[in-house]
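ESCALATION

Customer reports they have been waiting on this structure for their group meeting. Please prioritize. Original submission:
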Amino acid sequence: MDCSIVTEKTVQSCHSEVIVEEKFEKTKYMSRPKLKLAKSFSSKADKLREKNSYKDAVSIYLNAILVDRNDVNSYYGLGLCYKSLGNYKKAIKVLEKATELKPDFYDAFYELGICHQLEGIPCGAIKNFIQAIQINPENPSAILQLGISHELCEEEDMALMVYQKLIENTPNYVKAYEHKSTLLMKLCRYKEACSTLIDLIKIAPTNTQAYLGIATCLEKTGRKTEARRYYRKFIQQKPQLNQAHFAKGRLQDLKQKARQNTYLSPV
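Update from on-call: job pushed to the front of the queue and completed.
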């Protein structure tokens, strides 16, 4: 600022600049011990968080932040603790601070999105997952969560598009097939869901839920003989699951209906 023309306003402005410079100089000379102390607090808090001692970790992360207001790791760790404690509003607040300090912090944006979902504002999560994807487009987790967020916002077409894109880009990512097929079944688009689940079995032949899903879709579309075959496959693989009881019931019902149709058939 040019202070050659002196007025009361410019004097105040120049004085403010001097104060800022003095603070900067003071911080610069004290930064090394402060950073060391903050790092010590942060490391201790990290260890407590890893042991699920979230309340104790919160206090120590706050001490680290009091020492160094720009300690990104402590804001991030604090956010994870608040998330684990179910305080999603506080988690969102401190994770936002972490992203302000480090705009390319993938994990912070990802956790922000998760916290928005948990807080019941999935539409607010979308921008965070998009930001995470821009930072690391190779990680499928944020892309999957983006699809889930669109689904929770009742934007089913967008969710399906995200899941399909994820399948195309990461063809071995099982969760993309699972979420896409589940949404298609929810929308009563059983033929598409069946096709997606068959693709899933090709890459994950031991995925028992896929067999149950295929059986359900086939039954819904009137392909009852094929449905019986897939119900049997599911029961053979996981006879101990509670869902096996459901599958056995459907199989028995389909067999009985098939016999009735045989008896009613004209000679």
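Sent to customer with the following note: The radius of gyration is 28 Å.
Escalation resolved.
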